[in-house]
Amino acid sequence: MNPSVLCPRFEKAMSIISQRWTGLIIYQLLSGPQRFCAIESSIAISGRVLSERLKDLEQQGIVHREVFPETPVRIEYSLTDKGKALEPILREIEKWSQAWIDQIGDCHEEFKI
Questions:
Q1: How many whole angstroms separate alpha carbon 58 and alpha carbon 80?
Q2: Which residue among 18, 19, 97, 102 is buried most deeply as judged by most CB within 10 Å?
């Protein structure tokens, strides 16, 4: 019997989405473009870590950062097509969690969908 070998693409995909907070950031952006402070407050993440994750996701082509030349400057983050393609996966994880994870609190209080 041959031992199974992970596909390098699958391994890379898992390393991207398994990074701490990344899945929650992508999940939060499924509802549409958001400003940094909205993301930060919705998932209770530190600004430094959120900034790092957003930069990583932007480099991976998952998140788009748009700067609006206003006073003060407004910056919004949204999912690219590549990021939006993760929606079915995250929705399945959401369904699984509702069926198998003990209730901790009202889901929609912590993550405003």
A1: 9
A2: 19
